[in-house]
Amino acid sequence: MISSIPEGRYAVATSGAKTYAYGCMTRVGITPPPVTITADDKRLKAGKPAPDPFILAAECLGFDPKNCVVFEDSPSGIKAGVASGATVIAVCTSHTRSKIENCGAHYIVENMERVKCEPVGEGKDMKLKFTVYL
């Protein structure tokens, strides 16, 4: 998924501390993006389930959260994404569907292979088209 999203068009917003988050991403071959919001970010007033991490990430990217898509695997993260105004795709990777299905996500998928991203247009007019295979 990440390789299909152009640089500068995605962020990570996690409840993990910076060292933990960067370590996890690096271990699975993901280069942490320039916009990575972690639990110990001094700019945050509140963490998940408050929407602050997603709002801050969107602002840092230069987008309105309402024009963003959040991928989340935890109940508190799903609630935070919904509260931010973003479209939320819940992923059943760390919690069962029954634990996350009533958290307000717009879509629920079993894993990230169920979502495809395609850039449409170029430059500042570029949009990202997400297709969700339920």
TrEMBL record:
It comes from the Eukaryota. GO terms for molecular function: sugar-phosphatase activity. Signal peptide: none annotated. This is HAD-like protein.
